[in-house]
Specification:
The chain is mostly helical and 514 residues long. It contains 23 helices and two strands. Strands 1-2 form a two-stranded antiparallel ribbon. About 2% of the residues have low confidence.
Length: 514
């Protein structure tokens, strides 16, 4: 068998030598498919690479002489392109691996001679072949392969994606991400960041790719941290800061403000983990700046449903993020509060949502009042270590008083709402019970909290009575079991408060709680 293969390879070499003397592209390409098919099955890897290089060098000569058109005119050129496209596919499909595919140096140059339509079709075919062959690979380490693939993919995104259909954009995003997930340059993290920069410059118009790059770059900082075993030299710190700067520059290129918010907040959290406090604060501020840009509904969900958990995450992280001593106390916190007031909430639900968020702000301020915060990040001095002076405590106390007044005012707005349906009533009940739970959990029993709780329960009962009267299908109060649990906590926190006792008695009677 080995002897037959050697003979076949020699015959192919002889044929190629003969047809290489022709100046007719039609004649040259007409003979090639048969020769290529035999070579793909008989020649060894080194022999094939040499022969393929010669073939593409010769073909490149034809096109360079004729400036991209065949010598026999347009019809002949069209046939020649079709045959050469088939030849390329045979060569690539029969390659042992993707390293062999991209080791054919003239191939990438040759693709540029194709007319636009044929070139796009050919590049798609090449990408599909690469996708098939890389499925069996655990990792891709060869830069030749990586940049070869990107060079082919770039042809599908010419003019930075102008005119690119949604289907082609999705195809390109999926293939790029699938390929790049397996790229691993080992300890050479700088080369990895350079690769991400290259991808951003060529494919930054594709949102999915941009998101992928940001997440991979943040992961790269964690990999660098692991390689250095958590020790930050000047070089490592500078590299991590470069990665964070990459994210800071890249994220604004996305069109979706909610994704921008998520990625900026995540970048801020990773930055703080690496002790990059100033970068973390900048990213945090840029994250909250996206909130007013959001539409009242996202993916057919109301904005309160989308943002409630996210704002709570912001406040949880803000417990860790130290305030800049050069700024006023609670500078970032107050900025967040101002931004929340600018968000385009649903008008009907705005006051109910505001009540939940004010309760979250109240929790944050109460936590900041503690001499020692409940959680810290390694090597980060949070506010409890930076601000021990009485002025800071006074600022927190004043803010606490202001929040309680805002909650009282918001309850007044909720009381004026026209609540006539069960979904809105459910949301109102959740808002008020959440507020009551936080008041009990974080504040000492006093007349102010007692009055707020009584007002909240009174509003709840008023709205429940209206909906129960108009909606005959409502068999039981929404969240009845939860209301019962909250009522038990209130009774335990205010055992001797007569107003609380009277309010709870009314609650149990009108809603028929167990």
């Amino acid at each position: 068998i080995q002897m037959i293969e050697n003979v076949a390879e020699k015959i192919c070499r002889r044929i190629l030598k003969e047809i290489s003397s022709t100046n007719d592209l039609e004649v040259y390409t007409e003979t090639l498919p048969t020769v290529i098919n035999i070579l793909a099955k008989t020649a060894n890897s080194i022999g094939k690479k040499e022969i393929y290089n010669n073939i593409f060098n010769k073909t490149n000569e034809f096109f360079s002489r004729s400036s991209g058109t065949a010598t026999q005119g347009a019809p002949a050129s069209s046939k020649a392109f079709a045959r050469i496209g088939e030849i390329i596919q045979v060569i690539l499909r029969n390659a042992e691996n993707i390293v062999e595919m991209f080791s054919i140096e003239p191939l990438l140059q040759f693709i540029n001679y194709f007319p636009q339509t044929e070139k796009l079709a050919l590049c798609k075919d090449i990408i599909n072949i690469v996708s098939e062959k890389q499925r069996t690979l655990q990792r891709i380490e060869d830069p030749l392969v990586v940049y070869g693939f990107l060079s082919v993919a770039k042809n599908l995104n010419e003019n930075y994606g102008f005119g690119l259909s949604h289907q082609d954009r999705r195809f390109l995003a999926e293939q790029l991400i699938s390929f790049c997930i397996k790229v691993d340059f080992g300890k050479d993290v700088e080369q990895t960041l350079n690769l991400f920069t290259n991808i951003r410059s060529n494919f930054g118009n594709i949102e999915e790719v941009t998101e992928f790059l940001v997440l991979k770059t943040l992961n790269l900082t964690m990999k660098t941290r692991a390689l250095s075993r958590g020790k930050y030299s000047k070089k490592i710190t500078a590299f991590i800061q470069a990665c964070i700067s990459f994210c800071f520059i890249t994220i604004p290129g996305m069109d979706n403000p909610l994704k921008q918010f998520d990625l900026l907040l995540f970048s801020s959290e990773i930055s703080l983990l690496h002790n990059c406090v100033s970068q973390s604060e900048t990213l945090f501020k840029n994250a909250i700046a996206q909130l007013p840009e959001l539409l009242p509904r996202i993916d057919n969900k109301p904005l309160d449903e989308v943002l409630e958990g996210r704002i709570r995450s912001l406040l949880s992280f803000l417990v860790l993020l130290p305030e800049n001593p050069e700024n006023e106390y609670l500078h970032v916190y107050e900025g967040l509060k101002r931004v929340v007031d600018m968000i385009k909430w649903d008008r009907k639900m705005q006051s109910i949502t505001k009540n939940i968020l004010l309760s979250d702000f109240l929790v944050f301020v109460c936590i900041q009042c503690q001499d020692k915060l409940p959680y810290h990040m390694a090597n980060i001095k949070s506010n409890d270590m930076l601000f021990a002076e009485a002025d800071f405590k006074e600022k927190l106390y004043n803010e606490l008083i202001a929040l309680l007044k805002e909650i009282h005012q918001t309850l007044g707005e909720i009381r004026k709402l026209d609540v006539t349906d069960q979904p809105l009533l459910s949301y109102l009940i959740r808002s008020i019970t959440f507020m009551i739970t936080k008041l009990i959990q974080y504040l000492q029993p006093c007349k102010t909290t007692s009055d707020l709780i009584c007002l909240g329960v009174t509003i709840l009962l008023e709205k429940y009575a209206i909906v129960a009267k108009s909606d005959r299908n409502m068999k039981a109060c929404p969240y009845a079991n939860y209301i019962s649990d909250v009522a038990a906590k209130v009774r335990q926190a205010f055992p001797n408060d007569e107003n609380i006792k009277a309010t709870l008695t009314r609650l149990y009677t009108e809603i028929k709680l167990s």
